[in-house]
Amino acid sequence: MSDALRPLHNARAIPVAELPLLSLDRFREEILIAVESGGRIVSLFGQPAGDALRLYGAVATPEGGLAVGCADVTGDGYPALTPDCIQAHLFEREIAEQWGLRPEGHPWLKPVRYHRPLAGRDVWNRAPDAEIPPAVTEFFRVEGDEVHEVAVGPVHAGVIEPGHFRFQCHGEQVMHLEIALGYQHRGVEAALAGGPHKRTLPIIETLAGDTTVGHTLAYCQAVEALGDCAPAPRGEALRGVALELERLANHAGDLGALAGDVGYLPTSSYCGRLRGDLLNLTALLCGNRFGRGLIRPGGAAFDADPTRADELLTRLDAIFRDVRGAVELLWSTPSVLARFEDTGVVTPEQCVELGLVGPAARACGISRDVRFEFPAGIYRFAHIPTSAWHGGDVFARAFVRWLEIERSTEFIRTQMHNLPAGEARLPAAPPGPDRFVLSLTEGWRGEICHAALTDSAGRFARYKVTDPSFHNWTGLALALRGQQISDFPLCNKSFNLSYCGHDL
Amino acid sequence: MLKTLLARLRQGHRTVRWPEGSPTLPDRLRGRPTIDAARCPSGCRLCVESCPAEALARTDDGPPTCDLGRCLFCTECATACPHGAIRFAPEHRLATRRRQDLLLSPQEYPLARALEGRMRSLFGRSLKLRQVSAGGCNACEADVNVLTTVVFDLGRFGIQFVASPRHADGLLVTGPVPQNMRLALMKTWEAVPPPRVVIAVGACAISGGPYRDRPECSNGVEGLLPVDLYIPGCPPHPLTTLDGMLRLMGRLKEGR
To answer: Which residues of chain A does B141 touch, with a Cβ-Cβ cutoff of 8 Å?
Structure first.
């Protein structure tokens, strides 16, 4: 039995035999020490192994690498990590819901997605044929004179995915927000098990539709590593361009929506249009505004000849000029800044404790960025400086997005001017047997993690997806504390998290 | 103030000249496919086997059929076909009124007709919709939402998304309808005062899409709600959706 986690690289497969099987105590200790000394949990999940449930843990180490390990748990429960390590809280709820393993001492053990266990026991002892209605559960309550509860959703006022928000308020002030999701649960992980098969790519591409490129890239990196084959360099560059275009479109859209939520209509109106223009650049590459069909194992399924590359760059220049004009209005309008600044603050300490990722973390001054920390694909050769700001408020989350728009635009220009010669796509080998891989990409919301485990036939024994939203929803709940309830839409939009990416 | 005005001037006029002019679409747009059955050798099922959504079918030596209600427009079939029988044209007009009309046949594609009688007089010039995302991945939602921007300016056609189902003339549904959203969807529909319309947008809402026959999902609104307008795609291009809505309202000129 090993006694330490095994270091590994992003998107580089290892034989399953090299995954260190630790004692449960040692496994807990390794994760707790890593997190305590400045690391964080990247993914934590369970998978049945004989009579036991095997827990797999992946951490970003304090030294700046990745490390994994696993441990077997027999019996109904194990001592939870959450009391000593808050960022494990949702992972442990997920393990309990999926496999019926009780994390003893978990302070808030509730379902995550409201579905039946994938196998084995039901940790809440629900009857096998009982209905499991989403968000029908105890909520954290604040009692007292003039304290009231506000319930919102699942169906919201806008064109937006469903979720339920429960506020405990004193007058206008929010004392506590609890977020109950699961309405979007489509059984993604169950559908991916046993793959790759014909539906694998369509499911990955619709896992979180606004992050089609981010998730599909993570998937392709994973299967390429499992099959021990390298994608075409030209395809890698095009995939990087597509990932940054996705970031540009979503960031520009978010800045417009933030402007709309504070009633500043010029930027709201301009950025709504510009977001669409940016999606059209992805459609210029592949015919689909979300990049469906573009990212494929082995490279990119569509190439850009010099004429197409020129057109993309010309259009990008014009769009960037207009985005700059629209966004700079925000920074020079006092009424906008007054609403953005000091609203929805997440402190750096909270950010580190919760293990937030993406722009939400970088807005707390914490430099976390897969492209820089664990580069794979094109990012091994072309670096994007990490954009961080301080303050942890709506302003910082907006400003980080603007900084990233500038840097991603520059990256796309450089890449499109220097596309490597050759094919955009090479034949890819199927995944090899008994291998494990951790594949990370920096989606526009933050770190996307796909962990894949193949069986002796090279099929997915487990395909575990961790969307950045899974880390970040609790950050939104904390940001609301002490705020006016009327600031919820603004705070919510400043995170703009995925419901389906969380609900899987 | 001067800065704001200057920015306004620079941003210019951005609303598309459509339906008056012709639409601008990406040249690689994967729109309505055509199947040239004359090229299909007997017994060949390569396209059928390659389809991830079971949209294609072929009985014996009949021509292959494609159900656009299931099609993800991924073009796996066109890639798998060595005979060049399947082509995806940049044709964005796809919406139909009846589910069976989505089955591609050699006959002319029956694009959606306008609502009849009282429904048309009620909704032809003003249509308020409540959108329900029931397991939608946020791609359909995003490309429905984009219709409200200055580019498409949905309001000029009298179409508007409203917050309350009680204020709505109908529902626009996206997503494969997970079991966990079924009740919320049905309650929202019941809250819309009749007469009401239902618009199903995207492969998931029409048939379940990639989630068809998954136990965690219904097969979209199939068997749950009476649908008045089907808009296929994954996701449909915004102009596909707008084209469908305008056809339903009887707002497009003959022959368009």
So the answer is: 159-161, 209
Percent of chain A with pLDDT over 70: 100
Q: Is residue B17 part of a domain?
A: no
- Cis? peptide before A196, omega within 30° of 0: yes
What is the rounded distance in angstroms from the CA atom of residue A310 to the CA atom of residue A413?
Answer: 10
Out of B50, B72, B88, pick the residue that ends a domain: B88
* Assembly ipTM: 0.95
Q: Shortest CB distance from B7 goes to which of A283, A292, A329? A: A329
Domain hosting residue B62, numbered range: 33-88
- Angle of helix A233-261 versus helix A488-495 axis, rounded to 10: 170
CA distance B185 to B176: 11
d(CA A492, CA A471): 15
Q: Which residues of A touch B235 (CB under 8 A)?
A: 209, 289-290
Q: Under 8 Å CB-to-CB from A32, ≥6 apart: which residues?
A: A81, A84, A85
Of A160, A9, A207, A379, the closest CA to residue B141 belongs to A160
**A280 part of contact set with chain B, CB < 8 Å:** yes
Q: List, in sequence order, every beta strand (DSSP E) within A267-360.
A: 295-296, 299-300
Query: Mean pLDDT over all residues of chain A?
Result: 95
Same domain, B128 and B231: yes
Residue numbers in A near B180 (CB within 8 A): 113-115, 133-134, 182-185
Kindly provide the b/e burial profile for residues B154-190, where b requires at least 16 CB atoms within 10 angstroms of the residue's own CB. beebebebeeebeebbbbbbbbbbbbbbbebbeebbe
- In Å, how far is B21's CA from the nearest CA of chain A? 19
The model's pLDDT over B196-229, given as tens digits with 9 standing for 90+, comes to 999 999 999 999 999 999 999 999 999 999 999 9
Delineate the domains of chain A, giving CATH numbers in brackets. Answer: 6-104 (3.30.460.80), 188-503 (1.10.645.10)
pLDDT tens-digit series, residues A16-48: 999 999 999 999 999 999 999 999 999 999 999
Of the partner residues A186, A280, A290, the one whose CB lies closest to the CB of residue B139? A290
| Same domain? B159 vs B236 | yes
Q: Considering CB atoms only, which of A160, A287, A322 is closest to B29?
A: A287
Residues of B in contact with A201 (CB under 8 A): 52, 74
The CATH number of the domain holding residue B220 is 3.40.50.12280
Instruction: Give B205's contacts in chain A (Cβ within 8 Å).
Output: none
**Residue that the structure tokens 């619709």 belong to:** A206
> Which B-chain residues 56-115 have CB contacts (< 8 A) with chain A?
72-76, 90
**A182 contacts B180? CB cut-off 8 A:** yes
B44 by DSSP, 3-state: which?
Answer: coil
A375-417 pLDDT, tens per residue? 999 999 999 999 999 999 999 999 999 999 999 999 999 999 9
Tens digits of residue pLDDT in B54-92 = 999 998 778 899 999 999 999 999 999 999 999 999 999
Residue B151 has its nearest CB partner, among A158, A206, A276, at A276
Q: Which helix (H) or strand (E) holds A259?
A: helix A233-261
Which residue in chain B has the smallest CA separation from A207?
Answer: B137
Residue of A157, A158, A185 lying closest to B180 (CB–CB): A185
A194 touches chain B (CB under 8 A): no
Tell me: pLDDT of B105 over 90. Answer: no
Identify the closest residue of chain B to A294 by CA–CA distance.
B74
DSSP H stretches of helix in chain B: 2-11, 46-50, 76-80, 117-123, 139-145, 179-191, 202-207, 238-249
CA distance A417 to chain B (A): 22
Two tokens at A310?
Answer: 């020129």
